[in-house]
């Protein structure tokens, strides 16, 4: 019998050269983590903890105060929840169309087709967990033109093959590989400038509100019937102490458990394991299991499972 695989917070392997802005001042202190699936890293240095396809990717970003992730877009869904710290998410061609502040446990489902970035505005190192739609996460990152230009000024060039080359280390583009082209004005016109109400009203939910809804059963956060109505190729539920059940259940595909508050004991026939905030557990398909708080106090975890919906544009 296959048993769950857990990636512990303390065993996460960071990559500090994952993206094109790795040398750009203000963004050069980021740590990127690829937990499940290949993610969208542009660096050969990126470590992947679990390669098994789940229908989505799980990653994380760790950043010190005032460190930001530059403006970019994806072709599939990008969902974040705050594990620790205080974070500012911003969007638009120049990052000034709107912004929202998120705290521990809060979640944001960012619409596809817009440029977005995020910054740790707390006072200590913070981490956000990410869910990206599809096994190939949409084929990579689409950068705002100024990000590519700024990176070039600091020694990093992105090839059209999606790989980074560091001119400070003497690296050059291989023969036959051209630089990633900057989006044209016509192409930029396809990226929407959504208002704060459109992004926040549709795609942001606060932890305390979700926890209040998860008293009798898990709160369906993202899904066709979720409090965020979307079909991005996966569903997200929030489970709390009061909605946890001893009865075991199973899924016909792998699922993922990510605690955000408290310690949880995951049980399956013949075994069990305790997971804590920052840990990521992959539960195999068809394995009966449950998850129960293992200590007193507040307890909540996010549960993610793929659906048969295409991992395409988010609904709005």
Automatic annotation (TrEMBL):
Record has Isomerase as a keyword: yes
One matching Pfam family: Cupin_2
Keyword annotations of the record: Isomerase
GO molecular function term, any single one: isomerase activity
Residue span, Cupin type-2 domain: 68-128
InterPro entries xrefs: Cupin_2 (IPR013096), RmlC-like_jellyroll (IPR014710), RmlC_Cupin_sf (IPR011051)
Listed SUPFAM superfamilies: RmlC-like cupins
Statement: the UniProt record of this protein carries the keyword Isomerase: yes
Name the record gives this protein: Mannose-6-phosphate isomerase, cupin superfamily
Organism, as annotated: Palleronia salina
